Amino acid sequence: MNADTITAASAVVIALGALAVSIVQTRATMVHNRQSVRPLLQLRRVREYDGPEAGLKITNSGLGPAVITKCVVVLDGRAIGPWDRKTVRSITDGLPEWPHINTLTEGAILSAGYRSYLIHLDFYDRKKHEWFWDLIAKRLEIAVYYQSIYGDEEYLATIRPHSA
Around 21, how many Cα atoms within 13 Å sit in the side-chain half-sphere? Predict the structure, then answer.
């Protein structure tokens, strides 16, 4: 082996090493970019102690938008459909008072920082609206399936009834 062969072989090894480092760095950057726009949906029941509102709130606490892929509503242990107008009407028909509703349809996009009630009363009174709290705390279960803008993962936010 002469000096030219050793120099050429060393250059090939260094080039392959640089290529390997570049591939690893590119993959790490892709993972970081996905995580930096990951949505995080949360469902929670809210009863304002210092204010008049009460309801079921959805919040995107993540850094990126959430794309809704599916929503499943269970009432009294029985699946009744997605959180759309028809399903919500079947829940609210016959209630003493109509609560305010926001539906979640497939393909809806909830931006980072989004927060809104899915169902709520503006002027909640504990005695007068006990039926409403019973509905959202003991009878209603909602599962929201969603993805990030990359679209190849499936996340789930759910809220279940309190135990009796």
Answer: 6
**Neighbour-count burial of 45, counting CB atoms closer than 10 A to its CB (0-12 exposed, 13-18 middle, 19+ buried):** middle
Which 8-state DSSP code applies to residue 137? Answer: I
Matching residue, tokens 């459909």 = 81
Q: Name beta bridge partners: 56.
A: 45, 119
Tell me: the pLDDT tens digits for 81-105?
A: 999 999 999 999 989 999 999 999 9
Distance CA 81, CA 62 (A): 27
Range 125-154 average pLDDT = 92
Question: By C-alpha distance, which of 73, 69, 68 is closest to 86?
Answer: 73
Provide the 3-class DSSP secondary structure of residue 118: strand
> In angstroms, rounded to a whole number, what is the distance separating the alpha carbons of residues 37 and 35?
5
Q: Quick check: pTM over 0.85? A: no
Instruction: Give the max Cα distance, the chain.
Output: 95
Tell which CATH architecture fits domain 38-159.
Answer: Sandwich (2.60)
Q: Which residues, 6 or more positions from 45, have their beta carbon under 8 angstroms from its beta carbon?
A: 55, 56, 57, 136, 137, 159
